[in-house]
Every structure is written in C-alpha cells, then in structure tokens.
Input
Amino acid sequence: MALEFSSKKETFPNYRKFETELAGRPFIVETGKMCGLSNGSCMISYGDTRVLCNVTMSEKPREGVDFFPLSVDFEEKLYAVGRIPGSFMRREGRPGEKAILTSRVVDRPIRPLFPKDMRNDVSVVMTVMSVDQDCSPEIAGMIGTSIAISISDIPWKGPIAGVYMGLVDNELVINPTEAQREKSELQLTVAASMEKIVMIEAGANEVDEHTMLNAIKAAHVEIKKMIEFINSIVAEIGKPKKEFQSMELDHDLFEAVKAEFLDDFKAAMDTDDKNVRDMRLLPIRDRISEKYGEEWGEATVEEIMYKMQKFVVRRWLLDEGKRVDGRGINEIRPLAAEVGLLPRVHGSGMFTRGQTQVLTTCTLSSLRDAQIMDDLSTEETKRYIHHYNFPPYSVGEARAPRSPGRREIGHGALAERALLPVIPSTEEFPYALRLVSEVLSSNGSTSQASICGSTLALMDAGVPIKEPVAGISCGLITEGDRWMTMLDIQGVEDFHGDMDFKVGGTKNGITAIQMDIKVDGLTYDIIEEAFEKCRKGRLYILNDIMLPVIPEPRKELSKYAPKMLSLKIDVDKIKDVIGKGGKVIQEICANCNCKIDVEEDGSVFISAINQEDGERALHTIKTIVEDPEIGAIYKGRVTRLMTFGAFVEIAPGKEGLVHISKLDTKRVEKVEDVVAVGDELLVKVTEIDQQGRINLSRKDALADLAAKQGK
Output
C-alpha cells in the first residue's frame, strides 16, 4: 500500500520588515519569521552585518535571590567572517574578551530599566552571523536587543539605542567605517533613552573634556532618531507587558526596623574603615534576625540590612553633605605610590587609595609573545596586554581564588584602554608588553588604581610612554530632581549610590571612560560636572602623588629584561636570513643566545638578555643581507683548509679565502700551522672580484687591531 504525504507551505503570517538608515547606511529589522518561541526576537541587518537578537523570561521568579537575574551574551560565530575556529575541536569555545566586553556594554544600559523588584530570569542572546567591518555588530546587537525587549511581553522601561562615535581629522563621525576607525582619535560608544544618557564607554587619544561632551551630545541626536524608529515598531507589533510577582520589601516592616535601629546603623557606619564598619553591623544584623528572621526569613533580613545602609548613606549625602568616612565631597582618600617593589620583575608599581591597593607588574618580551586574536575583528595580534586579578582576600573573603570572570576582564580592558594611547609604537619600542594588576585590597575604584599602578610599573620598567596616565571615579546620588556628585567613591558609596563614572587620562586629556549607573540616565549637566571633577582629581594624583615618586621612565631597562634590537631588510633577503628549513636563523639564535623574529615586510626583531649577544646577532644578519664592505673587519669561522690558504665563513652562506701569505704577520709554511677547521679569527675584506669572490686577510686585520691598540 502506497504511503501519501502532504504538507502546507509555511507563509509566516507574522513576518514584518522595518527599514531606516543609521549613519547613512541601511538598517533593517525583521521579525516574525525566526525564533518563534522567544518572548522577543529580531534579525538586524546593518549593511552586510547580521545579528540575531533574542530575549526570554522565565514564567516564575527565581527563589532565594535578592537581585534581578539578568544574563546578556554576545555570541561571536567565526563563520560570520569566513573563518574556522583555531581551537583543537574547531568550534567556538568560551566567549573571547571582545565578546565579553560587548556583553557588558549592552548589559549596562538595559539593566537599570527593568523593574528592580522583579526576580524572573531574563536572558538576552545576540548571535553574530555575518560581519561587515564597516557596520558594527556591537551597535547592531545593542539596538537589536532594545527592539527585542521592547516588542516582547517582558516588563521594561525602554527603549534605548546606541551609536559609536569617532573623531577623524577633528571631525566627529557617527559609526565610522573600518578605514575611519584606524585614523580616529576617539572610540566612543554611547547608549541613551529619549531624554537621558544611560551608558558611556570610551577610549581616546588624549581628547579634551569639551570635545568628549560634544561627541556625547552628537551621539544623542542620532540615538533619538533610532528610538523614534523603535517606538514605531512597538506601536505596530509590540505585545502587552506581563504582570510579574513583585519581590519588593514590605514597606511597614522597613519602617518598623528604621524606627528601632536607625541610630544604631548611623553609629556603626560612621567610620573610614571598611572592616570596622562590617564588624559593627554584625550585632545589629543578629538583633534584627532574632526579632524578624523567623517570620520573614533570612533573605528578607539581608535585604533589610542592604536597604538600611543605603538609606543612611543617601540621607547623609543628600541632606547633610556628609560622607560615610567623614571626607569632604571632593576630597580624595589618602594616597601613596611606590615603584621597584619586586627586584626580579622588569617593572613594578603599587598605588594605594585609602583601603584600595593595587600592585601592577610589567613584563617585556619579544614580539613573538604578542597575543594571537581569534575573534571577529581584523586584528590578528595584540602586543600590549593588561590583566586584572581580584583575589578573595582583597575583600576579606575566605574562599579559594577562581578564574577571571566578566568583571575582572572588564576592569583589565578598561586599564588597558586607558594606557594604550601612550604606549610607544613597535618602531620606537619593539616589545610585547604584559601588565598584571593584582588587587591587594579593595574598597572601591580598583580599576582606576590599576591605571595608576600600571603607569608606575611601565615607567619603572623603562618603557618610554608618551605621558603618565591616572584614573579616578565620580559618584552620584539622585532623588527626584535633586542630584549631587562626589569625587573618589569608596565601596559603600558605589554599592548604594547611583553612578560610578570612571575616567582615565593624562594632563592633556581623556584616554578612557566607563560609566555604570543604576538610574534611568544622566543629564548633560551631570556628565559635565563629573568630567570636571575627574579632571581636577586626575591632575592632582599625577602631579602630587605619582610624578614625585618617578618623574619619567627609567633610562635603562632592568638587567633581567630582554634587550631588543631591530633592523629592516629587503624582502628578497628574508630567505637568506632564515635559511633552508630555518637552519641559518636557528644557528644565529644558538650562537648568539637570542630570539629572532622576521616579519613579512622585512622587519627583523632580535631579543637577548645580554646586549652584546643581541649586537652580535644584529651584526651577523647585516653581514648576510649586505654585501661585504672592502676594508671592513669581520669575525669568521674556518670552514675548509687548502694548501694555498683557508676558507673563512664571515656570515652564514658567505665565505672568502685567506691566502696563505695573508694568514699571519710572519711567513707561514703550512696552513695547518696557523689555523684549523672550526677556529674563529678576525679577517679583513681586501678585495671582491667581478665574480663576487671575497678575498680576506688575517694579516691586515691583526695589523689594524695593533694600530688601534697602539693609539
């Protein structure tokens, strides 16, 4: 019996396509065809870039948590740029650094706009499926995420949108192309709502505060156009928002605790020592737990402790202009700077700000140790690397250390971005550099202490940086239309405040910005005031704390650091330096105790611990690639003996004849009486005939040497 099959053709009745332009390039949003089980989904097309954005939410709140469980992932698929992953399994593994940083950049502007009392899991996934290097997948992912959440049934106070700003030939450029980015003095990502700025992430080549603020304002103009576009999509296909179970703390309970324990909290928190504060709060927590824990649960007790501390900190700041540790609003904590703490490392610097302390080390190596990149960018290697470690003991926790998380990677990248504009070029300083910031003690602003410690370590290592860099943060407290900023926030102010505005830079301008906020956005006035406070604080740290310790980079590298020499050779000569099967270059490395890297453009980099070894290798390579100079003296090795003289190799693949009459200052009967195969001797080039044959003289070399010594 014949089997019959039938099927209807899928027509995707919910498919919608929306089009606009972003920075003069087509921006297309498609919904209703893919990922039908997500709460919200869209495919973003920006030029040839394609990013699939999905958002989902759990039906029920997660039990036992006192925070909103949001996860944001930016997935880089290497097929998007036509590459097969370089891992052993040939598939994408854990997210790369750039993917993690992009996830953080998208997380920061969307998180404050979710209800603070919601405990349902929300997951955002951006999958990069095609990359046009002129059309940023990061920006496409951020806007796509905003659209996916806005059209979904998930409660949210968006939309937001973002753009990337460049500064090319002193002109601000929105979403610059790849060619423009290479020339840009500014790499600024801005996210905003229709009214306020919600996220700033920047790297810059010493850009002044006025230009930076103008760039943010210009970005906001373009962002508002995109938000109008998103609102039109929501008006057409947006779903009604779901109701959710609020996990907000019972108001009457909080008022009862406040009436009974407020004075105790104030007394406990009035100290500049984090450890003392924590110890004073323990008995208060025990009393609250004893009274309310059985009825309300320990999770509620923890939330009460958090809310009470937040209430005290904010009331002191807003009503009394008082800070927890007694400082003035614009007063920086006690500062200290040291260099040269670790004798065997190439450079080290420690920066202390109150109870925050970071020790940074600098390691120099040959360019072959540059990091190989395996992501969606066109960058193949990275020679300047900054790592940040945050061990548990830095905050007094008794647990084993873990591998770096997203926070550690983000802080390391911020410090790296702040220092990158002052790192000398490969031509000026042919080294790979790795800086490691070890957080020894943490009470806020460790990333900015890492910037300061890194400058100290680089200068201690003798790296000729263009300018010293320092970093500092500014905080914010808001209440309705009231707001105030304070300089150099410590942990408790960061935890209970509304903003952590981090700015790194030189005396000339800004090199990096990272802004974290917990409110719905910032006005231009707040940003401008934060810029000015950070500028003054940065200059004070540079001039009064760091430069008195080490006013300029050391003139000489550590004796334990490799000495780098470089030269440029003709591309046609590369094969001569490397030799068949690498024989020549391996022989030079072995004889001169060095490492040699040869680039495709003919750049040669020599790394040796001993300066003399490096210079010998340099001289050998020059001898290989350059024609021997008549009258020049070389140190060669005897390769063959003949009755009429000895052949001496003055460089790999280049040998000449020392006639028996030129072997010594006196008469020589037999060649074997003076030299043997393998002997090293000084010889002088006396002639190069028309066939390129080299005639050498040991006799003339010895005479020249004796004449020099006689003088």
Remarks:
- The chain has a mean pLDDT of 92.
- The radius of gyration is 33 Å.
